[in-house]
Design a protein that fits this description.
8-stranded antiparallel β-sheet; 20% strand; globular
């Protein structure tokens, strides 16, 4: 089938308005938020509005031997949704229905194009809570969260996306529809195919529906902040909190560079003092006396570890202001230049070592590197700032990006905690999982997608 014939078939199947072929338009769908990842020129962008439309696209592209790159809102940070030359970009944002909210069984059925924050707001009306909360939750979509197994600030207590998913509807490479999982609390029948597709970055199939578990709406959070004169002291406080069994709903860390950037951007003083080298921000959503006890225990640990400041509040507005300093870090860094954020996860006892490693890399490459991240689970986001007009600085930013991954692995960590592998960390995935792990990945891909139709070249190559 020729490209023209494929485009005409897609228009016949989906309607002309759902098939975009103008290069000026398709280019806007060609990449996500990761500047280092390679990007190609798609043949077309298609926007089906239901599962049958997705099936039609898959069957047509399979027959024409044209690869498919699934895409959500484009908020990803690994290049996993980046187009390759001649592909069809399959955009799922029009599958945007909350199909069902079953309050009695605390679950919902949702399509992939629903925005995370909109979904959270919808289930909140039923007194329920959907925990996964990526930092881009006000515009990222559930499908993208599923495809990358996204995390967020609340992972320390509630886990990543996969921990809230009961089942999926997936369109396979032959156009058939696979239903995985269950609607019950327990279920161990057969292979856990649900978890296989979550985090597969669109390489095994196209997710068109998800059944997710919901929780009772938590109490309004109480907030805690502590400032330290060394990263090591903050790291020890995190390690002690873990050892003593504390599970706050949020526990974040900011290094000196990120603190300064946020204070400048917000035109405020966080109260940590000029010598503050690390800030811990925590929340408890347990409510009432339980929350007060949790934060009092955190405060005691931080004081024992030499905190210069330790403060807790149950005032909601004050808590929002404190947490805003963490949420605006990336925006604040834009005042210095373009940012490139990394995504390494290390054992929680080695957070300070990662921060120190980033400081050394910053001095070596001559670029600002600010470290912020989810201290409660060890997932750190070292963010490199460079000038968009300097090819030399961009090259040094690339060097720093790779050296940070090297440090993360050397500390017993992983090259991605929540952003995914995509097209930017393929070689690093191979290093982390080894040749046997790569072989097994390829065997699974071959079994489900023998013609390499879905997102070829993302996560790993099918050849050495």
């Amino acid at each position: 089938m020729s490209n023209d014939a494929l485009l005409q078939r897609l228009r016949d199947e989906l309607g002309a308005r759902a098939v975009l072929a103008d290069a000026d338009v398709t280019g806007t769908y060609a990449r996500d938020m990761m500047p280092l990842a390679p990007v190609g020129k798609p043949l077309a962008v298609v926007l089906p509005s239901d599962t049958a439309g997705v099936q039609a696209v898959v069957r047509a592209c399979a027959e024409a031997e044209v690869p498919i790159v699934p895409r959500g809102a484009g908020s990803g940070l690994s290049g996993a949704a980046n187009a390759i030359d001649g592909c069809v970009v399959l955009v799922l944002t029009k599958l945007d229905q909350i199909v069902e909210v079953d309050a009695g069984n605390r679950l919902a059925v949702v399509q992939p194009g629903v925005v995370n924050l909109d979904f959270r707001a919808a289930v909140e009306k039923h007194g329920l809570f959907y925990p996964p909360d990526p930092s881009s939750y006000d515009w990222c979509t559930i499908g993208g969260n599923l495809a990358t197994n996204a995390g967020g600030l609340c992972c320390v207590k509630y886990g990543v996306t996969t921990d809230s998913v009961l089942g999926l509807e997936v369109v396979l490479a032959d156009g058939s529809v696979l239903n995985t999982g269950r609607r019950t609390v327990k279920g161990v029948a057969g292979y856990d195919l649900t978890k296989l597709f979550i985090g597969s970055e669109g390489t095994l199939g196209v997710i068109t529906k998800a059944t997710v578990a919901l929780r009772p709406l938590p109490q309004a959070p109480a907030t805690f902040v502590a400032g330290f004169s060394t990263a090591e002291a903050a790291g020890e406080a995190v390690a002690r909190a873990v050892r003593e069994g504390l599970v706050p709903s949020l526990l974040e860390i900011m290094d000196a560079a990120s603190i300064k950037a946020s204070e400048t951007y917000l035109n405020t003083d966080l109260g940590a003092g000029s010598d503050c080298q690390a800030l811990l921000l925590g929340q408890s959503d347990s409510g009432g006396e339980v929350a007060r006890r949790e934060l009092a225990a955190l405060e005691q640990i931080c004081n024992d570890c030499g905190a210069d400041l330790a403060y807790a509040t149950d005032d909601l507005e004050e808590g929002k202001l404190l947490l805003q300093a963490r949420r605006v870090v990336l925006t604040a860094l834009e005042t210095y230049g373009i940012w490139l954020t990394d995504d390494v996860c290390v054992p929680r006892t080695r957070i300070a070592e990662l921060i120190r490693g980033c400081e050394r890399i910053s001095e070596k490459v001559g670029l600002k590197i600010a470290v912020v991240g989810h201290a409660g689970d060890g997932n750190m986001h070292p963010t490199i700032v460079y000038s968009p007009d300097s090819a030399d600085e961009f090259a040094r930013a690339q060097q720093a990006f790779d050296e940070i991954l090297e440090v993360g692995l050397s500390l017993g960590g992983t090259v991605t905690g929540e952003h995914g592998v995509g097209k930017i960390k393929r070689e690093w995935l191979a290093r982390e999982i080894g040749p046997v792990g790569v072989r097994v990945h390829r065997q699974i891909k071959q079994a489900l997608d023998p013609e390499n139709l879905f997102n070829p070249g993302s996560m790993f190559s099918m050849t050495d």
